[in-house]
Design goal:
2 domains, 11 helices
């Protein structure tokens, strides 16, 4: 199909600016969920407590958070769930990164480094020589011994993983195998003589500054545990001579989270619809907040039980439902076009990509693909298709996992991108707008 006409920078929608801010202020899954919750709060969604009793109403909007890193938002609609089903869309909040170890301090040659573990299938080379900061979640006890937690974001560059100079490794450009234990150890401090450093003490001081220096009874008194991630401080940016591309960390898959959340908020409240943003997709999804966990099924069960008492309500409703799994797709790289199947080479800014795999690494089938294409056709929005080369292994998404757990017809789609799983990725800004329109129309279908 024909490609859309590119817009000039001055014609860009406000969505571009919103997206850049969302990406910049979401350095971890915890922050991403907090920001999506804020979007939902401002749009009239009511937050539910998983531990409480749910008394839901028709034509109402709700959301629930699990582990502070996964979120499900839904519109109950006005239609009969057992006959009209639910329009669901899904994405994931996590991205490959470096995660700080529980006891990370390493003092060597007068330098202080922090031990870090590779989380997910990250491209490792781009992590060298970047201005890095630290963000995440910290659990603590108060002076009364009560437990609490808080999110932190140091924001300023506090860490750096320096490369070894080419003069000391003349063969480095002929191929490099990275030892994550030895080489991906960020430098954070040069110590004074006899100086000792404790990350927990730094975290405690940061928390106390956030909570107020008067040390109220509920303020942090002792750090007990943390989940801290390193991230690149370079801000997201529109790039290119015509600003046709968005460059940022975590486009996979916060780009999908943002546009799907925005599309749900703007959707018609008459149609029952839902967004699930799982955590831990990059590490297998086997967790309480992951797609292999019970989060989505639990929410749908409770939703249905508020309006239907039949024993087979879940099966009847899911049979009428559809799941749109949204995750970034592999755009054909101009320097490596041979890595793509000749007939399936998605371009940036050429419309959403339908992902297909014969071995069900993607959950798309002919029925769900036809439904998705029909929406694009009604909107006159071009679409593309991706199939991995037959001699290469295919990645996967939350699509097959959700389809298996829920029994819902599923289609896997995404926005074409470059540098997937790098510390900084690239996507087409026109694809953000067009995919948003398709997802919004899908919710309204």
């Amino acid at each position: 199909m024909a490609r859309p006409n590119p817009k000039t920078p001055t014609e860009r929608s406000g969505m571009s600016a919103e997206l850049l801010l969302f990406l910049q202020h979401s350095p971890t899954p915890f922050h991403a969920v907090t920001n999506m919750a804020r979007m939902l709060d401002e749009s009239g969604y009511q937050r539910l407590d998983e531990a409480g009793h749910w008394k839901l109403k028709k034509s109402a909007r709700y959301y629930v958070v699990r582990n502070e890193s996964a979120l499900i938002a839904f519109n109950t609609g006005t239609q009969e769930l057992l006959s009209s089903g639910i329009r669901l869309a899904g994405a994931h909040t996590d991205s490959p990164c470096l995660k700080i170890k529980p006891n990370p301090e390493i003092a060597k040659l007068g330098y202080l480094q922090l031990g870090a573990e590779v989380c997910g299938g990250a491209l490792l080379n781009p992590w060298f020589d970047r201005d890095l900061s630290i963000a995440g979640r910290v659990h603590f006890s108060t002076r009364k011994g009560e437990l609490g937690s808080a999110l932190i974001d140091l924001k300023k560059p506090v860490a750096f993983v320096p490369s070894l100079a080419i003069h000391l490794d003349r063969e480095v450009n002929k191929g490099r195998n990275i030892n994550a234990q030895k080489e991906l150890v960020p430098l954070v401090l040069q110590l004074d003589k006899e100086e000792r450093f404790s990350l927990d003490e730094l975290l405690l001081a940061t928390l106390q500054e956030q909570m107020g220096k008067n040390l109220k009874s509920n303020a942090a008194w002792q750090v007990l545990s943390h989940e801290l991630l390193l991230y690149d401080t370079q801000a997201p940016q529109l790039v290119g001579l015509r600003e046709q591309f968005v460059a940022s960390a975590r486009l996979d898959n916060l780009l999908s989270c943002f546009l799907a959340c925005r599309a749900l908020i703007a959707s018609n409240p008459k149609q029952a619809s839902a967004l699930v943003c799982n955590d831990h997709e990059e590490v297998g999804s086997a967790s309480t907040a992951g797609a292999q966990g019970p989060f989505l099924k639990s929410v749908v069960d409770r939703w249905l039980s508020n309006f239907h008492s039949e024993a087979d309500s879940f099966e009847r409703a899911t049979h009428q439902s559809l799941f749109l799994s949204i995750d970034n797709a592999h755009g054909v790289h101009p320097n490596f076009s041979e890595k793509h199947d000749d007939n399936h080479q998605p371009l940036l800014n050429a419309g959403p990509v339908i992902k297909v795999n014969a071995n069900q690494r993607y959950a798309s089938n002919s029925q769900s693909i036809a439904l998705f294409k029909s929406i694009c056709n009604k909107l006159s929005i071009p679409y593309q298709q991706f199939v991995m080369r037959s001699d290469m292994a295919c990645g996967s998404t939350i699509g097959p996992l959700t389809a298996t757990a829920m029994g819902i017809t599923t289609v896997d789609i995404g926005i074409a991108s470059f540098g997937m799983h790098s510390i900084r990725e690239l996507a087409g800004i026109e694809d953000v707008e067009s995919t948003y329109q398709v997802v919004n129309a899908y919710f309204n279908r």
